[in-house]
Amino acid sequence: MDKRIIFVVGNSRSGTTMLGRILGRAPEAFTFNELHFFEQMWSPTLPAEVIDQEAAIDYMSRLMAVQRDGYFARLDADKYRSEATELIETNSGEWNAPRVYALFVAYEAGRYGKSIACDQTPRNVYFIGELLAYYPQAQIVHIIRDPRDVLLSQKNRWRRNYASKTYPLRESIRTWVNYHPLSISLLWKSGINAWRKFENHPRVHSLRFEDLLEDPERTIRQICERINIEYIPQMLEIPQIGSSHGVDHQDHLGVKKENAGRWQHAGNKDIADLSMCQSVVKREMVALNYPPEEFSINPLIYIWIAALWPMKNLLAVVLNAQKSRNLLDFIRRRLG
Fold first, then answer.
1. Which CATH class is domain 4-335?
2. Alpha helix ranges (H) inside 24-80
3. Which of 18, 49, 74, 96 has its CA 20 to 30 A from that of 284?
4. Does the pTM of the predicted model rise above 0.85?
C-alpha cells in the first residue's frame, strides 16, 4: 500500500474524465476507467475491517473485470479469478478492502510500465478523509466547475448516452431520472462541502475547470508540481470527446476552451433550471468566484419544476440503489 495513487475527484460532469486523461499521459502515470470501488463494491469504514482471502480474491477479480471489460459491461469476474487468486496468494499478510484495491491499481499500472495509478471516479469526493487515511502517499486532485455548466451538462447527458448506443438503455433512463435542477444543485453543493473539509490538507489540491480551459499548460504544470509528477507538453494532447453538448472528435486533440461558460448561451427552456440552481448554491458560487446572473422567471414554471422533484427524487433513489453497498450512507454523504 506504499505505491503512489492520484485520486481525481469532483462533481460529476466537472471535468474529472478530461483531467484524468491529461494526468494519464504523464510518463509515470496510468489512468484507470471509473472503478467505483469505494461505496459501490465496498462501503468505506475507518478502520477497515479484516477480510478473509476468499473475499480478497472476489474484490480483486471484480476490479479486473470493471477495468478491462468496462463499467457498463455484464461483469464476468470469474474469468479473472485465476489471475486474481495468484496475485492474492503471492502477497502474504492480513487483508482488508483498501489493501486489495491498492494492490490491484499498482499491479494493473505496472502491466503498462507505469508506477503511479490515477483513479478518476468523481464520487470519491465523498471519501477524501478515508482515502487520505488508507493511503499515506495518495494525492487528491479536486476539480471545480461552474454549477450552471454542470447542470446543463447533466441535463443533456441522457441524450448523449442514448444516442451513443454504447450505454445500456437502463443507464440512459437512470441518467434522465437523475436529472432535476434541484437534485443536481444539491449534489454540487454537497460535493463542494465534502471537499471544503479538506481543502487545506497538504495532499489535497484543487483547480477550476475554467482555469484549465483558459490556460491548460500553466494549470497542469502547477498541478504536476504539487503532486510531484513530470509535466510534458504531450499531456495536453487529449481527444475532444465526452462532452454532453456535441459529437466526439477523436482526431481533434487538445483542450476545448468553448466548453467553459456554455450556460451563458442557454435557451429559454433552460432559464428556470439555471435560476433554481443559483438560488440553491448562490453562497458557494460567490465564494468560488462564479458571479450569479439575474434571471426573470414566471413563478408558475418554478412551482411546476419544484412539484416534479419528489417523484423524480424517489425514482432516482430506486434506480441508484445498486450503486451503493449501503443506501443510507449513500444518501447521508450526499446530504452532507
1. alpha beta
2. 53-69
3. 18
4. yes
